[in-house]
Amino acid sequence: MTLHPEIAAVTDRIIERSRPGRAAYIALMDEQREHGIGRPGLGCANLAHAFAGTNEQRERLKDGRSMNIGIVTAYNDMLSAHAPYYRYPEQMKVWALEAGATAQVAGGVPAMCDGVTQGYAGMELSLFSRDTIALSTAVALSHNVFEGAALLGICDKIVPGLLMGALRFGHLPMVMIPGGPMRTGIANSDKARVRELFAEGKATRDQLLDSEIAAYHGKGTCTFYGTANSNQMMMEAMGLHMPGASFVNPGTKLRQELTRAAVQRLPEIGWNTNDYRPIARTVDERAIVNAAVVLLATGGSTNHLIHLPAIARCAGILIDWEDFDRLSRTVPLLARVYPNGSADVNGFEDAGGPTFVIRELLKEGLLHRDIVPVAGDSLADYTRKPDLDGDRLVWRDHGETSGDDSILRTIDAPFSPEGGFRILAGNLGRACIKVSAVQRDRWIIEAPCRVFDDQQGVQDAFKAGELDRDVVVVVRFQGPRANGMPELHKLTPPLGVLQNKGFRVALVTDGRMSGASGKVPAAIHLSPEALGGGPIGKLRNGDLVRLDAEAGVLEALVDPVEWAAREQAVAPPAHHGIGRELFALMRHTASEAEAGASAMLAAAGL
Q: pTM of this prediction?
C-alpha cells in the first residue's frame, strides 16, 4: 500500500521545517561516532575505574572488542510499573554474555508516580521530572564506555525523559524495554462510579480506598489507557521495542524471553556489524509521524501533545499541534480502551493489541512502513504477535478480525473516521482537546465561566453547590512557568458528576488534564499561559465562553473593546516546600506547551 497523501504531506511539512536542525543533529551524531570518546580512547586509569565494580565480565571488558551495553534503569519498588525491573540487570548481564557482549548498569533515573502525587504538591515536580530524567540519562551515558544501551522505563514522564536524554547519544544503538501491565483488577466503570459517589459524599473514604486498591493491585503499569500505556503504543510504532512487547504481563516466561531478545539484539546492530542501527536513525521524521498516528488511532494520552514535540526536538525534528490536527482528521479511531471505552489494556491486548493496530493502519498507508526499527526489516515486522514455541520465542500472524470489536476494530469499520484530537484557537489563545471519549453533542459548550487559580478552589466550589449549573470551569496559573503544569485529574470526578446531572460543562486551563482525560470536554495546555500575560488571565467570573471542537474555536464572548482594556489577573505567590523551590530555574525558563514545555530544551536552543 502506498503512503496516504495526507500522511505524506504532513511528513514532508515536518521534514522541511526540521531541515536545518535535523542536519545539525545528524552531523553531531556522526561526529560522535567517528571522533567522539569511546573505550579505545580512554586512559587505563579511566578504564580501571569503569571495570572495578565487576569481576565476571572484566576480562571481556578489557579486550574492548565486544559491545558493552549500558543499562539505564527507572527501577523503584514504590511504583508498580517499575517494580518488575528489580531483577532485570542481573538477568540482562547473563543474556549479554550469552550473546558475546557485556552489560553494566550505567545509572538510574527518578520515576515518580502521578497517581501518588495527583492533586497534591508533589505534582508540581512531575513534568520537570521528565527533564531531570533526560539529564540523568545523559549523565549515565556520559562515561563513554558503552557501545549500546538498554532503557528500562515505562511510565508517564519516564519514557519521554529516557528518550530525550538517549537521543543526544544517538550514535549508539538502543532499545526500550517495557515491563508490561498489571493484570486486570475491578472494572474501570466500577472504579469511576465509586469515585463519583465519593465526590458526591455518597461513599466513605474506606470504600473509596478499597475500590482503588482493587484497581491498582499488583506489579505493572496501571491498566487504563493513559500516558504510560500510550507510551508503549508509540514505542512499538517507532520501532524501539522488540515487536509486540508492550502489553505482555510481568512475571511471565514470554515477558522474560522478550527482554532476553532485546538485550541480545543490541550486539547484532552495533557499529562494528553490517547492520548498524543507531537510535538517531531509528527516530527520524517518519518514526515521529508514526508515533502521532497510533496515538490518534487509539485515543491515547493528551500528555503526548507535549512529550512527542519534546522528544522530536532532541532529534532535531520540529512537530507542532497543527501536524497533530491534520493527522487526526485523516486517521480513524480503531480502539476504545478506558477511559475511552470500558476495556483495559489487557482486553486491548487480547483483542489484538498494538500489532493489530499497526497492521490495520499499514493496510491504508497511514503509517511509514520503511522506518529503521531495532528488530526486523521494517514496520511490517511489528504486525506479528510474540509467542512461545516451547521455550523458543517466535512471532506469529494473527487473525484478520478483532478478538473483540467493542474494543478494537479493523480499518474498514472504525469507531470513528477521525482520530480523537482537535486544536482550539481564538481570543483565549491556542489549546488542544481530546474528543475521543466525549459525546458528540458535547463538542460545543457555551456557558458563563467560573474562574479559579487552583484545583482545590474548584473542589470547594463543587462541594458548596456553586457549580450546579451550565458552566465553563477555568483553572489558570497552571502552566509550566507558573507551577510546573501539574495534571488536574482530580477534577474529573466532580466535573463528571455535574455533567451526569445534565449540566453543560467544560474545563479550560493552561494546565494539563491527564492521560486519563475522559468524557468532559477539556481545553487544555492553553498557550500562552496566564503567567506572563496569556489571555486566560483576562477572564472574569460570568464571562460567556465558547468551546467549539467542531469548528476548532475557543473564545471569550466579550466586547472586543472591553477585552482589550482589561488588565491581567495577578498571579498567586509561587509555592514552596516539597522541593518545589529547587525547580524555580526550570519554571522560569520553560518553553510553551506546544514546544514541549521544557526548560532544558529552551536553554539548549533545541
A: 0.95
